[in-house]
Design goal:
Elements (H helix, E strand, L loop, with lengths): L1 H12 L20 E3 L8 E3 L6 H56 L13 H4 L25 E5 L5 E6 L29 E3 L29
Antiparallel strand pairs: 1-2, 3-4, 4-5
Length: about 230
């Protein structure tokens, strides 16, 4: 009995394995979101990177810097352009106001027969004290458009230190250097606004002559009406 039992157990252990079917898909290794290092599969795990490449980020940064530089240059150019536009307008206003003073001095000079003289101050152009009515030769006291202050006056010591003209006190360089009318041809090539002097120069020998008298070969600018 004991022998037969051992015999049966031995035959069971040595019996061939029963055949079984395993699907081919089950033999494939599962895909992992990481890879194992070669120095021991269980020692470390290397996670696969999915971030943006460094080259793409560098290109974006350079493009942003270039855009900022271009915008800055455009703003500087636009600011300079409008600054020049405003300065040209001030120059035109300076020419107009200086001309008003020069013409007012001329009107004052020839206002009374036999009394050719220049004004003592700017207020004389606003109200001529030589007449009872106080004749007005200048509409208003204009400011210098370049500085925003009063014009500087030109005085002639040989004419009793009286006013013969006005000019701006600005030492800035003018934008306009050519194209002046004949009366102001001397302004061409000047380097500063204070060199633009609006002076009335009467013909020599007019003292004591009737109002409006013009000597041979001499010319006095016809007086213009005072702007209303």
């Amino acid at each position: 009995m004991r022998y037969s039992r051992f015999k049966i157990q031995d035959s069971i252990t040595k019996s061939p394995a029963l055949p079984c079917h395993i699907p081919h898909s089950a033999l494939k290794k599962p895909s992992l979101p990481f890879s194992l290092s070669r120095q021991g599969r269980g020692a470390g795990v290397r996670v696969m990177s999915s971030s943006t490449p460094h080259s793409s980020r560098g290109f974006t940064y350079i493009a942003l810097l270039a855009a900022i530089v271009i915008i800055g240059i455009s703003l500087v150019a636009a600011g300079k352009y409008w600054q020049n536009v405003m300065m040209r307008e001030k120059e035109e206003e300076l020419m107009f106001r200086g001309e008003q003073y020069r013409l007012a001095i001329e009107r004052y000079f020839i206002a009374f027969p036999g009394r050719f003289q220049f004004p003592q101050n700017i207020d004389d152009l606003l109200k001529d004290g030589r007449s009872a009515a106080g004749k007005r030769h200048l509409r208003q006291k204009y400011k210098d458009p370049i500085t925003g202050e009063d014009f500087e006056v030109v005085r002639d010591q040989l004419k009793g230190n009286r006013i013969t003209g006005v000019y701006s006190k600005s030492e800035k360089e003018p934008l306009r250097t050519t194209g002046f009318e004949e009366t102001y041809k001397s302004f061409e090539g000047k380097k500063k606004y204070n060199e633009w002097q609006f002076i009335f120069i009467p013909p020599t020998g007019t003292a004591g002559l009737p109002m409006g008298t013009v000597l041979p070969g001499q010319l006095v600018t016809p007086p213009k009406p005072v702007p209303k």
